[in-house]
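Pilot study result, target chain (112 residues):
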Amino acid sequence: MARQQLVQQRRTFSTPNSILRADLVQDLYLREIRAYKPPPLKPSDSEGHVQRFSAPKAPQSPEEGDIARDLKAYEEQQVEVEGQAAPGESGAAEESWFEDDEDEEEHTAAAH
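Predicted structure:
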């Protein structure tokens, strides 16, 4: 008898008919989307939104005579080497770029 009660007490799940049927609003929406045809594009549609292209003017090329003259002036230029005196000038005394510890000690002692 207990077994019969279990069978009778079981729930049965059934899906309602409204879920099985296609949704009317969804069908209308999808039909309208499929039927939509965008308006054709015209060449004048972009006017006012896009600037017209104009190619930049070509750069001016240097003249060949100027290049030859500049090259000749460069070749005739005297080479300057650091540490060597130019002709007609006396050689400058080379400075020591290293700092001595004695100078620093004198400076700190004078500051206190």
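One observation from the pilot: The first helix runs from residue 2 to 9. A full batch analysis is planned for the follow-on phase.
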